[in-house]
């Protein structure tokens, strides 16, 4: 994956997060995704992870939280 492709994905993720639009984020994942959160949760598959993200986004609905895309320098 090129730097430009990685930057485009990062921007897409940040924009979707800022708009509280879960679908573009889920579209980046394969159906058999495995996610381990910082708390003792494990999500096997996109459906379970999507449910969790929906709950997180619902909790952020009234919060002023933004995702800022970062720039990697090597």
Please describe what this structure looks like.
The protein has 74 residues and is mainly alpha-helical. The chain has a single domain, classed as Nuclear Transport Factor 2, Chain: A (Roll). The protein contains three helices and two strands. Strand 1 and strand 2 form a beta hairpin.
Topology of helices and strands:
Blueprint: H1 3-18, H2 22-27, E1 34-36, E2 42-44, H3 46-60
Antiparallel strand pairs: 1-2
Helix content: 40-55%
CATH class: Alpha Beta
Major sheet: size, sense and barrel closure?
2 strands, antiparallel
Gyration radius from CA atoms, angstroms: 13 Å
Averaged pLDDT: 79
The number of domains? 1
Uncertain parts: none
Compact description:
This protein is mainly α.
Keywords:
74 residues, mainly alpha, two-stranded antiparallel ribbon, 2 strands
């Amino acid at each position: 994956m090129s730097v430009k492709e990685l930057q485009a994905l990062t921007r897409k993720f940040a924009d979707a997060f800022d708009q509280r639009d879960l679908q573009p984020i889920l579209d980046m994942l394969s159906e058999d995704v495995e996610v381990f959160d910082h708390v003792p949760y494990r999500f096997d598959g996109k459906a379970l992870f999507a449910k969790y993200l929906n709950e997180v986004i619902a909790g952020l609905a009234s919060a002023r939280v933004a995702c800022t895309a970062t720039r990697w320098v090597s």
